[in-house]
Amino acid sequence: MTDLGLPFQRNLWLGIGDLGRDAARLVVPPVAAAALLFGGWELLSRNGVLSARLLPAPSKVFETFVRSLGVLLDQAQPTFWGALAGILLAALLGIALGIAVSYSRALMQAVYPTIVFFQLIPKVALAPVFLLWFGTGFDANVIFSVFIAFFPVVVATITGLQAAPPSYERLCQALMMSRFRMFLAVKLPFALPHIFSGLRIGVTFAVIGVVLGEFITAQTGLGYIILFSANNFETALLLSAILLLCGVGMALFSIFLALEMIVTRFYDSR
Amino acid sequence: MNANATLLAAAEVASSAPSPGYVAIDQVRKIYNAGTRHQVEAVAPTSFSVKAGEFVSLLGPSGCGKSTLLMMIAGLEAPTQGSISVAGRAMTSPRAETGIMFQDPTLLPWKSALDNVLFPFRAMNRPVEPEIVERASTLLDHVGLQGFHGHKPRQLSGGMRQRVAICRALVYEPDLLLMDEPFSALDAITRDEMNLVLMKMWEEHHRTAVFVTHSIREAVFLSDRVLVMSRRPGRIIEDVRIPFSRPRGLEIGETIEFNEICGHLRSKIEHRPH
Ligand SMILES: Nc1ncnc2c1ncn2[C@@H]1O[C@H](COP(=O)(O)OP(=O)(O)O)[C@@H](O)[C@H]1O
Ligand SMILES: [Mg+2]
């Protein structure tokens, strides 16, 4: 067909073409890479190159996942609720301590070095100590989870409360605002993006905390299933449990992401 | 003639004794971190006064103590020595009748232009009645922000943000307007525009104003009086009356008189030797 010189039409088609090409550029490479990985894995497992005991085929894992879904979902409950309780308590304590430290120079000097110190030590090493102190129940896992998830939240809150430029403080003082009103109207909204990024790290830490606790207390939860199936060479079950654990982590992460999106709609401090 | 001089002297005493100006700075000195290793004398003992309705600029090199002096007038910093009174009352803490502007517009990013203008009412816990909203809208219209009342600061240019800040400083009808280099971060063309906007608003509202700047032309254009400060520790070393009648337009900047005044002020400013 001859070009009738209809730029509108041509641009429209070009536009759709661009859109399609952009989407393809985004979607095709990761999908292709994943297909290659899982396809290769499946092939190698079927040919017996990979030992079924060590690394069963993806199809086998999926089959086990579906078959054991009941048990897995049962065991996912304490892990999910434990991690949720962990991050919520860590958020409460972390934000409260962050605020307290930001408003008291004495507290800042007394507590901040300790916080930094605790951030540096590998907290995994302390899990057995927590077991000793708090027993082997659900609470012990939650407490350990809080302990791990707490630090990123405190640090983010302290950083966030310094985010409002000093001139805003001057303005608030000139308008004779109380420190409390200044906190609510200016400091806290400016701190929110920092606090939420602290919470995002905290969520993943809370899941790690609960699973570690389950490894050690070995009573219930996906962590326990992972430990148990590894000991019994039930690798397909192990991988299924890990898959569900990813799901738990993603569910918790999405909850906080949604909360963040709602809050930053009202307090967008860009 | 002698009698005349006596009369004048008497008038001076009469006018300076009971009400020594709307803003009266009396032997004010500021030393930061006094008594420590980090002690800095920012303002040397200084006295001056600003009459009601007068527009006065503080002009001086960077770091000479202009902001410090302004913050003391705002009641945000306490003088180390001396005293400051505004409208006859000694300044010990901020007062509700002072409007303030900084180099940074200090707008809340999550609030619209209109809500930012209304912020002082919320801050001071005063009711926002419909006539207050009306007043805020009118102010925004007068600084040329028709159609931008609902825009967020990030959707506004730097000059527009400072226009919002002007409205916010005026909305609660302060009797004193303090401005700390409000246009220093703007480009030269926007700065001229802002000077015109500020001039117009000031002519409409006629508040007493203290304006800090390190731009000689800006000071001369806006002010009734320009006070030149020495290098740190700052003190007033020159007090120049600017004779141009109001309303003023940017074209006065082209006159010989304007440029002579600028030249005189420039000669007084102590530049750091290289
Ligand atoms: N809070 C403070 N603590 C210590 N020194 C200060 C403080 N604020 C200002 N200074 C010092 O006081 C001097 C005058 O500062 P400032 O009033 O901001 O000057 P200007 O506004 O004229 O540039 C500078 O040397 C500055 O470093
Ligand atoms: Mg300054």
CATH level-four homologous superfamily name of the largest domain in chain A: MetI-like
Structural class of chain A: mainly alpha
Percent range of helical residues of chain A: over 70%
Bulk shape of chain A = flat
Total DSSP helices of chain A: 10
In short:
Chain A has two domains: 10-50; 53-268, MetI-like (MetI-like fold, Orthogonal Bundle), CATH 1.10.3720. Chain A contains ten helices and no strands. Chain A has helices spanning 7-46, 58-67, 69-103, 105-120, 127-134, 138-160, 166-174, 179-217, 221-231, 235-266.
Report on this model:
Chain A has 270 residues and is mostly helical. Chain A folds into two domains: 10-50; 53-268, MetI-like fold, CATH 1.10.3720.10. Chain A is built from ten helices and no strands. Chain A has helices at 7-46, 58-67, 69-103, 105-120, 127-134, 138-160, 166-174, 179-217, 221-231, 235-266. The two termini of chain A are 50 Å apart. In chain A, 34% of the residues are buried. In chain B, the strands form two sheets. In chain B, strands 6-7-8-3-9-10 form a six-stranded mixed sheet, with helices on both faces. Chain B starts with a helix and ends in a 6-residue tail after the last helix. Mean pLDDT of chain B is 89; it is low at 1-19. Chain B has eight helices and ten strands. Chain B folds into two domains: 3-97 and 175-183 and 201-270, 3-Layer(aba) Sandwich (Rossmann fold); 103-173, no CATH class. Chain B has helices at residues 2-16, 66-73, 113-123, 130-142, 158-170, 188-205, 216-222, 256-268; strands spanning 23-32, 40-50, 55-59, 81-86, 89-90, 98-101, 176-180, 208-213, 225-229, 236-241. The chains are: A mainly alpha (270), B alpha/beta (274). The site of magnesium ion has 4 residues of chain B, from helix 2. Adenosine-5'-diphosphate is lined by residues 32-33, 40, 42, 60, 62-68, 232 of chain B.
